[in-house]
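Subject: Predicted fold for Peptide ABC transporter permease, 510 residues

User T.R. writes:
Posting the sequence so we have a shared reference for the thread.
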Amino acid sequence: MRFGDILRLCRQNLWRRKSRTILTVLGVIVGCCSIVLMISLGQGINEQNEKMLKQMGDLSIITVYNYGSYTSGNAGGEPITIDDKVVESMRAIPNVAGATPVMNYGYTATVKAGPGNRYISEWVQIMGVDMNQLDAVGYKLADGVVPGKTTGTGNTNEIQTLVGEYFSYSFMDTLKGNAMRTNPDQYGGYYCEMDASGQCVTPETEDPFVNPMTTRMTLITGLNYNGDPSSMGGYGGMGGSGSTGGSDSETLTFDLSATGVITADDSKGWATNSGLVMDLSALKAIMAKIDPASAKKAVTYDTVYVKAASLSAVPDVESALKAMGYETSSYEDMRKSLEEQSRAIQLILGGIGAVSLLVAAIGIANTMVMSVTERTREIGIMKALGCYVRDIRVMFLTEAGAIGFFGGLIGCLLSGLISFGINVAGMMFAGGLSTYPDTAGSASGEGSSFGTIAWQALVGGEDVTRYSVIPWWLFVFAVLFSTLIGLLFGFGPANRAVKIPALDAIKNSE
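User M.O. replies:
I've generated the structure tokens; pasting them so everyone works from the same file.
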């Protein structure tokens, strides 16, 4: 028999008992729909976990410390230090994209700007990194360029620096009671203020007092410097009681020139948010002027940021760094833990859905057994006419596979519609959509166009929470798996059909 003839017979036989066929296909639809939706809920949890990790910063960054590290693994050995040679050896580790030592400024610093130094930023965090490794380690510039070398003019040094993305909002207006401007994005979008009715309302973004890229700034610091007296009463008052804490000779002043704005990434230092990021040579020059004695000592670092070439390379790179005797930290353990939890949830949910598909598979087997029993005489006639045994087996397997295939296909379409409905409902009523192009600050989908909600329910987005996610491979897997289930549970009845003797089948009066 030609395969086309087998398909024609398959269609005729299935449609002959259409009520039974429809009920069997319906069982497969329910089973397929259950397993796809259950796995999609697990995928939704996994997507939310990934977004949460991305908000924490660069997942491929490994922070290396040397606190309490010794060559023999205990306090009786030689203390391990990190110098420029060690940093170079870290860069030579396979799958390391870049590495930069980090030097944190340990003295109090104030930045002033504006006419008469009206605007003050107190307790400024200053971080020194290797500017040559800026791109390799994954630092991004929101504006401007990387600073050049430090230059000196007269008795006052001009320091070129990068400023944190929200550094401009750290300035206080000393003529208006140390008032400050706000930018909710600085706090990851979770900042809000209480209104008169007691509701938490996200404030509007205000223009900062100072634009560091166009305003000359002055850095004031010193060995015993405790802050500027004019900022007392603001948050700068934590450092002293109304005096600078040191004589004028101990206070140094530097002109600051901001060449760029670095994108905030807390995993690469808080200074990227609201501090200053300088080249190591510039920061060393400042510290040498403040404490000349310390400048004569060998330069060592407490922290190094190492960027792995890929997320999958993080475990190997971290192991190599630990083998060198250093302590490390990364988001790898957290990421693995979340992945394991997500995988366990998907297995549990998938198992629940598989029970429904198993019931549907038993229904397929029952349908095929009934079909073989009812068509015993037909099978005998086909054998008597010289039909190959394999053709009879293929015919019954095709019928069983067709039930699984169409049930899986319809089940996937139905699953997609239900998943879409879950996401739309979540966005409209559970606040799953954080931002909309046509609304401002809405906590749910109210007031948003349905087209916007529908589109983001399908494709997702950075500010979108989808509760059910069906990747393309899940649709393909579901259809193939349903077809395979049909073939497996139809094999027994098909094998039974080919074993029926031709004469006995013809004599069968049923």
